[in-house]
Write a structure and sequence with these properties.
The protein is an alpha+beta fold. The chain has one domain: Alpha-Beta Plaits (2-Layer Sandwich). 29% of the residues lie in helices and 28% in strands. The radius of gyration is 16 Å and the shape is globular.
Length: 125
């Protein structure tokens, strides 16, 4: 099975060792943050991400995919990686009232503010 972004004009095959090929959009933009949860809020956070954040973000123009990675050494800490077709897409998302509302709700679950690690642009090697 080939995985390919529908909007990709010139796909890049990531796995060249004979495995399942993966394709990404050229110059895709990524946001990376750390979310630290209040103790006991694990299920609430996962439900919030699944039922509220993902449906709204995935419907937003330019949203490509999202990853949520749990820290192996701290079960209350997650790395949040969101992929966007262009930086302008994420800038518009961050300025939208719906995203602001989601951030405010997240404050009731997180132990502190969402920690921005950075914004990154995909580099093809």
């Amino acid at each position: 099975m080939r995985v390919r972004a529908a909007h990709s004009q010139s796909p890049f095959q990531l796995d060249q060792r004979g495995g399942t090929p993966m394709y990404f959009h050229k110059d895709m933009h990524f946001t990376v943050s750390r979310a630290r949860l209040q103790p006991g809020k694990d299920k609430e956070y996962l439900d919030f991400r699944h039922n509220e954040v993902l449906p709204q973000m995935c419907a937003w123009p330019g949203a490509v995919f999202a990853l949520l990675l749990r820290d192996d050494n701290d079960p209350n800490s997650f790395l949040v990686i969101n992929a966007w077709a262009r930086k302008e897409d994420v800038d518009k998302w961050r300025a939208d009232a719906a995203e602001v509302k989601l951030r405010n709700k997240a404050k009731t679950i997180l132990a502190g503010p969402l920690e921005k690690i950075g914004d990154f642009t995909e580099v093809h090697i």
